[in-house]
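lol so apparently i was supposed to do this last week
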Amino acid sequence: MATLIDPEVERNEILRHYRRLLRTAKPYLSGNDAKLIKKAFNTSLEAHKEMRRKSGEPYILHPLAVAQIAVEEIGLGTTSIVAALLHDVVEDTPWEISDVEREFGPRVAQIVDGLTKISGVFEYGTSEQAENFRKMLLTLSEDVRVILIKIADRLHNMRTLDSMPRHKQLKIASETIYLYAPLAHRLGLYAIKSELEDLYLKYTDTEVYNDLTNKVRQSRGARNRFIKEFVTPIDEELKAQGFGFEIKGRPKSIYSILRKMRKQNVTFDEVYDLFAIRVILDVPQEQEKAACWQVYSIVTDFYQPNPDRLRDWVSTPKANGYESLHTTVMSRTGQWVEVQIRSRRMDDIAEKGYAAHWKYKDTGSVQPESTLEAWIAKVREMLETNNSSALEFMDEFRQNLFVKEVYAFTPKGKLVILPDKATALDFAFEIHTHIGLQCLGAKVNQKLEPLSYQLRNGDQVEILTSQKQRPTEEWLQYVITSKARTKIKDWLRDDKRNKAEDGRFIVEKRLELLGVENNQDNLNRMLAHFNMYNPQDFYYRIALGQLDGREIKESLFDPAIEVPRIPSMLEPKAFDQEVQKIRGVRADMLVIGEETQKFDYTIAPCCNPIPGDDVFGFETEKGIVIHRTSCPKAVEMMSNYGNRIVRAKWTDQLELAFLAGIRIKGSDRVGLVNDVTRIISNSLKVNMRSITIDSNDGFFEGQIMVFVNDTDHLNKMIHRLSKVNGVLMVERFAS
Ligand code: MN
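anyway here it is w/ manganese (II) ion bound
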């Protein structure tokens, strides 16, 4: 339906929004600021003059709204207002970055450039998205205002999502919940984060959203009465003691109510903490802490506190800058109520994020000691140390956005903040890479603990090191921070490379001694003899003494190895083709398990094939041996003794028991072995031949040998075992 547009009405509308922006920004403006904002507004108005949004309104209303959010809801200053007004100019109009720089200076240009670069859509799971994301974080470490304005941009787009087609709504909404809401949370923009989540719900699950919104509305009367009754004594006492304060009782966001209902599996009526009481104090900064505790004392004089629910983020702010004192107390009607106590300044930070407090000067400098700066430094560090693919990186980073934190201290009392579930080893790497690499264990609160000790809030951690200590593969299981993991992997890789060099030296010396040429042919002979596929591994194992160097001589003169094929070139996926090729040579096919069999066969102990496996026969002096095509020795047999390969398959009618090995890993707990064996013997009626379980540092690893009928039978058992509580991995093994 076409609407008639009155240019006069439209101009007035635009001016109304612009004046509102100036009014909100006014208290923070100085010098030439107002002129600069006016210039940016006129530039943007002119550049976008032919454009309209999907809703039909003039485009300029969007940059105006983004600037309004930036100043009003995030607390940003003039540079950000100017950048917000210009944020779509380079992307959507003939304006170029150099134009912005010429007219508005390098700082604004840099922010607009950052915003233009990250304008691509973040489609989950694509590497393009991940690259975009990485770019976004790089700009973040240059100037965090890029991300803050980006979040403002996204908030306005979510608020005006109605006019978008359905598929775009879903895409933008899921991108928001996937990335922008967690980012807002991490930057301490609680109000925006909650609104983004609620809007996400509104567009993706409209029915649930409407239902909960109605319920919150309907319960408002009763809730307000309850709140009034609850706060009255507190209110009177605070007045009597001469506090300047405000008390709010605000319902939680729809999204967080829903999350609670689902997590605790309760109905709306059973969610007890639908709202929190907030006491906001007007006190000078130097009296904040004392005042908060004074109010705590008053509140708990009237209501019994729950000692497990006291949170002191006044003494130790959260990493995103959040400061507040939380307590949960019992009301007179027997309901638990959360009370948040904070100063006006803390409330500003909690609502608008750290930027509100930190009020960029136009130099853009950040207070060096601020926690936000520490976080940005951490992001930068992750970007620098991480060498995984962009996609992996993104997942890892997202996980870091969500995780809770654990606070621990060095012996000198320095605070170290790590993700929840971090270990003593993570702590060591956080202090310094060298300390991590030589970490022996830790003294936690004066008590000796292993590397894998999981840190708890308030732990005092002294890392014990030794010059002789070396990282092992096992360490990777103990750490959860990407910093520690990357450093350990780097070390292991370098170590392997160095050892392989030593091994190569040993081999070369021996060849020299034997007077044999060091060439590819001879290398291939050695690899074939030792059943190795890659020279690096070969040298490495020689250096460790896992392969016997004395056998080198034998390998070079082994008559069985006539063809110096290159087994190292044989990729696992070429197996099947190879088998096919060799199988074709002989016409007769061995049918295993047939009553009228022509062949004598035995089952190879190295790979324990069972019916259902892909197999082949191998002729030996003692008859034919059946191997799996995936047997570790298969490559060698096929490449060197092709003439001894016999095609083989299983007969269909078979009721025999075959031996198979299962490897099982997981976190140890009482009763685990019992659970595992019960499933094997009782539920599945499988005969076990042996079981060994080793437990180490909370982890267990076991090998179980069982008799099964075929692969179906075995897979069923593997599936059942993998469901056992604590079991992380179950797999069949060859030998
Ligand atoms: Mn925009």
